[in-house]
Amino acid sequence: MKLRIIKPFVDKYTDEAYKAGQVVEFTKARAEEIIERVPDFVEKVVEKKPAAEKAEKKPAAKKAKKKEE
Length: 69
Hints:
Radius of gyration: 27 Å
Number of helices: 1
Distance between the termini: 73 Å
Shape: rod-shaped
């Protein structure tokens, strides 16, 4: 799960320092723990999935009729 860092902090398990503005990938369990303990320091990053593009249907090309003489 990705979190956007709002306020700088140091991860208590890894001692890694995170700066405001960073987007960091955490395990779901760790992200939920951070959100629970310091909700003002992070926010969830919601990734938008691209909508399935609808194929445009084009009218079938008309065949030219050959004039018979």
